[in-house]
Amino acid sequence: MTVSPGFTRFDEAINKYYHQVTDEAESVDMEYLLKYSNVFTSIARLIANHSEKPQWKSGDKYEQAGKALYQERD
After folding, report:
1. Which of 9, 40, 58, 62 is the most interior residue, by most CB within 10 Å?
2. What is the pTM of this model?
3. Would you list the domain boundaries of the chain?
4. 45-71 burial, b for 16+ CB within 10 Å, e for fewer?
């Protein structure tokens, strides 16, 4: 599962803030990271507790793998 801000490509503006070899723990916005983690956790919990199993969109490259996975669990 991936949660993203909706961008469709990496451009100069995104690369300015994306993971760099010079990243240091002190530069991490911990308040934002906590909010992001809470949203991710909430989404995962909603999906896990939903009565219907999640399914891939028809024609998606992972559709067959998803079907095989769920058939094994049924």
Report:
1. 40
2. 0.54
3. 28-73
4. eeeeeeeeeeeeeeeeeeeeeeeeeee
